[in-house]
Amino acid sequence: MTLFVNRLTHLDASLWCPQRGLIGASWRVDAELDGELGEDGMLFDFGEVKPWIKSRIDQGPDHTLLVPSETPGISVQDCPEGLCIRAEAPYPFEVRGPRQAFTLLPWDTITPQRLADHLSTELSRQPPARVETIRLTLADEPIDGAAYTYSHGLKRHDGNCQRIAHGHRSRLHVWQSGERRPALEAEWAERLADRYLVDEADVVDGLDASFMGRLASRYTAEQGRFALTLPRSRCVVMPTPTTVEHIAAWLAREIARETGQTTRVQAFEGIDKGALAEARP
Q: What is the pTM of this model?
């Protein structure tokens, strides 16, 4: 007997791509579970198994940086913060943080299917009672219109959002004069695509930080010390923390200023959640 759970949860993370560099990802998680019926005529109690699977995803890859450790040019080393990850292609990159902020995968590239198969195997090793096999599917949210991926870190967050390199794939909606503006949505999604959003308060000043056009950010949060260095061209520096509330407000202000029109922005943080903001020029 097989039972299924669609939209069991969402997985938000960043990953290092050999072609695109640091990118954000948001995947819908669907599950199928095989097992034998019990005397109660049920395979299992959905109310128990759903949180069991979700908790293991939350404690594992969710809100981490997924690192394909077999990619040529990737370096993983111990450091005072925990782990130091370096890469040189497609651009120079370094991130440091506690070990739990990273998911190391012995592959040359990361795909949703490969990660889903890996998680399915891990979950099936010790499944709940009466469950024999668990199969997960990770899928992008279908988006008809503008979307972009971004990475960030929220040092004041109490949970795993404080990790300096986690991210999302998000919709972007922009209204002016009561109507959606697809051209503006596409323009700003392109500006933000595959970018790292950083609070200017976390930017490290000095010659070392700006060496060869790079931007360094650093902060200490409850989980430990974090640091990240990227080409400045891959970063968007914001005057505030990079919460979705501030992202929506910042976008509304910037678009209103550039276009001279009152602007309303609906910024998403991954799938099915986000913030609304409005600004006048």
A: 0.94
